[in-house]
Amino acid sequence: MQPFDIHIPTRIFFGTQKADVFAEALAGLGRHAFVVLGGGSVEKLGFYSQVTDLLDRKNIRHTTFRGIEPNPHAGTVNKAARLGKDAGVDFVLAFGGGSVMDASKAIAGLIHEDEEDIWPYVLGGAKHNTMAGALPVATIPTTAATASEVTMHAIISKPDVQGKAPVSYPFLKPAVSWLNPAFHTSLPLETTRDGASDILSHIFENYLLGGNDSPLADRYSEGVMETVMTTLPLVEKDPGNENLRGDLLWASTMALLGLQQSGRTPAPFRMHNLEHALSGYNPDLAHGRGLATIYPAYFRWLNREGRLQDRLAQLGHRLFDIAPSGDRETDALSFITAFEQWLRDNGLYQPLSDVGVPEKAFGGIADYALETYGDGQQLDVDGPLTRDGIIEIFEMTEMQG
């Protein structure tokens, strides 16, 4: 087992019954909350008033910003930060999905820095790694997907340059998060599916590239994956079931809590790098949907290149009970085939052209991925992944459908 360190500063409240103690924790963050929302669904469903009532009972003032987009735009983050700064808020309360939580972290940092533009702070920007702090952040996730409720990352998009990149600092980890499955029972099926895909990706990334040094981390990771893969079809049949929604929500948090990589070699998130370049090109592409589209081609490319076959084969045995044949390439392919069928069965199997990314854009997207996340020439995926390799993976998705 490799040496490791884990810092989990977020206090997590799980369940509908934790509303009051969550509100008490918010009162410890400040007296004026900046409540950040997305497209308005939490208001239409009556959830927003439940939360503002909690704030009112604790005598916490609140200013609200509405309109964070999927794949939050830098310009919207800048606008929100100006409003929060002018209002004199003490902390930021994100109430929404991953985009709202990511935007809220960026807003908290921008207000603290007394700056006007978040984009220079993203990876590759002129002010990358210079942010000194952030206002406290609290979250109430309304999707089971990104685990932004416990992570240090905020992914920001800039449509006019077709860019998407992270702002990441330990101080962006939320101070408190309320995981309430009741806020998830009205989620649309497509959003639920996309979220499940995102959860799985967080596990796949380190499982494949992190090595074989931590059998316990393997079992932990496999448990999260199996929970997602068995629960999603049940949620599709019974979307209002709070227990099932809670299983997906907790799996989402556990997928990036830090324990999934304990004892392994820290691994880069290469599927995420490719997907961020894709949804930077098309900001309307849901992150989880983009990842689901990449999975099969990425796995098949790895297997063809003779890379990580033992890890892929182990997933086949552990998740699908596929008996080892003694040939790693064959066993890896058996897993890939079985997982592709799971994607088909759950409406997550499609080519890139079906999600708004035409083949003519593949080269430019590959260039962006290499410049932002690599050395300009390649990404390290147990060996080099070059521009031609990225384009080939994208082209291989066109065989899906």
The main sheet comes to: 6 strands, parallel
Q: What portion of residues belong to β-strands?
A: 5-15%
How far apart lie the N and C ends? Answer: 40 Å
Largest sheet, spatial ordering of strands: 1-8-5-4-2-3
Mean pLDDT: 97
Overall radius of gyration: 21 Å
Shape: globular
Q: Determine the fraction of residues in helical runs and give it as a percent range.
A: 40-55%
SS field, number of helical segments? 14
Order of SSEs: EHEHHEHEHEEEEHHHHHHHHEEH
**Runs with pLDDT <50, length 5+?**
none
Question: Count of DSSP E strands?
Answer: 10
Class inferred from helices and paired strands? alpha/beta
Describe the structure.
By secondary structure, the protein is α/β, with parallel strands linked by helices. The protein has helices at residues 19-27, 41-44, 47-57, 74-87, 98-113, 189-209, 215-237, 242-254, 270-281, 287-304, 309-320, 328-345, 362-373, 387-396; strands spanning 11-14, 32-36, 61-65, 91-96, 137-141, 153-158, 163-168, 176-179, 378-380, 384-386. Helix 5 links the parallel strand 4 (91-96) and strand 5. It starts with 10 loop residues before the first strand and ends in a 5-residue tail after the last helix. The model has no long low-confidence stretch (mean pLDDT 97).
